[in-house]
Amino acid sequence: MGPGPGISCSIRLNTSLTPEQKKLYQDPEVVQHVLNTARNVVIYGLSSDPQKASYFVASYLQTAGYTIIPVNPKGGTILGQKVYTSLREVEAPVDVVDVFRPRHEVPHILDDAIAIGARVFWQQLRINDLESAERARQAGLISIVDLCMKMEHGRYSGGLHEAGMNTEIISAKRTHRWL
Amino acid sequence: MAKEGRIFGFETRMIHAGQVPDPQEGSRAVPIHQTTSYVFFNAEHAAQLFDLKQYGHIYSRISNPTVAVLEERVASLEGATGALATSSGMAAQLTALLTLLENGDEIVSSNHLYGGTTTQFTYTLKRMGNTVHFVEPDDWDGWERHIGPKTRALYVETIGNPQGSIPDLERLAQLAGAHKIPLIVDNTLATPYLCRPIEHGATLITHSATKFLGGHGNSLGGILLDSGKFDFGRFPTIAEPSPQYHDLRFFDTFGHYGFLMKARAVTLRDVGAALSPMNAFLILQGIETLAVRMDRHVQNAQALAEYLSAHPLVEYVNYAGLKNNRYYERAQKYLPKGPGAVFSFGIRPPAGKTAREAGKEFIEALQIFSHLANIGDVRSLVIHPATTTHAQLSDEELKAAGVGPELIRLSVGLESTEDLIWDLDQAFHAVSG
To answer: Which of B57, B134, B175, B404 has the most CB atoms at less than 10 Å from its CB?
Structure first.
């Protein structure tokens, strides 16, 4: 599941956000808190195509121990999970709504996320509707923008490092890392 | 006390980046994972790894835990989004090009290059169906003239070898950006301590880690880095479906990691030019003292360049740290801590001797400089191309190659400055006496 106790770090690479926006929507401590405490993750816009980014993220998160809840108007079953055609139909409590849809769809997805009482509204990498991000925050949700949930999990659990990537984590502390 | 937001300095990162003490053993030095392969948890785990759906090691030709520390460390020092280590610098640049180019594609490159690179570009790439156009690094019309619809990258060295030229990285980056192609910079001679080309707009960086990064002349290695800032969304080999992985689109799926994921999972996997874990460990040992060594390398190089430029048996010195050098101002901008420690000078033969003879005698008289074909060692190194690497060429051919018969190349090491000057001095006496 989550990557374990927090690592303090400054993440500066690969974002379209300004430093002020990063403090609001990409705080490493908040991201680690979400990864550590979330269990049920809606993958909004999960594709049944195994080569799509949403499928990569969903299958990764499922293996990492999260329960993934697909939402896609096409319905059916993906990765062994029932696909809901609308976020409002999801019966289980939702920790994270991870959005894989174009920016113009984000506001109405947020309406649904607020309506079902989701705890975290997460706009995937390269999705950055800042108005919705701010509205999610005002509504009391944790709001994350322009980050990939798989990459962030990989950053703190060691996987991203194994792939040769710059995690920007600098620490001489020996910490537990769970997968 | 607020913990978040601390941006650690270069020296801290050259020691710590890429290694968080491992939770199981707590080893403080970087462990050497001398293993070919890694045990799967189960069949499904294996399948997911091979599909790139999970992070993790499979086989050391593709990735290795010790090598990964080197990759992340250099990525941190260069300000890159990630890195891929290879068995040599030549392998690093070939990996970059094999990942970017399809048959028929072209690149435009500075012609102030390491000789091995010129050969790789001219012959090996040509045999694979790729054309490299060479231009003088400051010939802006030349760069523009050779960029066409098949051009996939521009290529340059931070410090051109052996002319000691300093290209205008920012202008080259603008040119590449205007044509929506990446600028590749070989940063071997500068190291990220003296220059970080990504900060000036470069996309891909290559290194021969054999040189100053390792710094001790004991291990070959190379590294390829990506800034993560270039939009590969329309770049054919990265954006289009890859048949090796069920038509996976690397940019769509991995975003800013797309180029490096393809370079690793397709190019390195197929080419096999992987770095050994032992070499990664030795190069990491070198990197832990990089800043300290580079300051001293540059200090010694400056002292020797000044000594040589005042010597009657010296015709010219190609070092951008000298105020009368044509690249001095540009070096102040791009390499404010010093333009490296590799440079060449021309020996002026005394009456009755040719330049070729004088060069040979000079080299053979040296006591502390090692006569060999490498650069970037703690030891001072010297080579006279006209009687070694380029011995088969006539004087005219040498001049055309930019390496006259009088040219001697030094890689200045960390010995006592006075001893190095003493050595050059006594060798000049041997030539003139």
So the answer is: B404
Interval B49-75: pLDDT, tens: 999 999 999 999 999 999 999 999 999
pLDDT digits (tens, 9 = 90+) for B128-176: 999 999 999 999 999 999 999 999 999 999 999 888 999 999 999 999 9
pTM: 0.96
Tally of domains within chain B = 2
Full residue range of the structural domain in which residue B24 is found: 10-287
pLDDT at A3: 52
B228/A13 Cβ within 8 A: yes
- Are the Cβ atoms of B4 and A126 closer than 8 angstroms? no
Contact B83 A164 (CB under 8 A): yes
- ipTM score for this prediction: 0.94
In a shared domain, residues B219 and B352: no
Instruction: Please provide the CATH number assigned to the domain covering A20-162.
Output: 3.40.50.720
Last residue of a domain, one of B287, B315, B344: B287
Which one of B240, B267, B287 terminates a domain?
B287
Q: How far is B68 from chain A (nearest CA, A)?
A: 5
Cβ neighbours, 10 Å, residue B170: 16
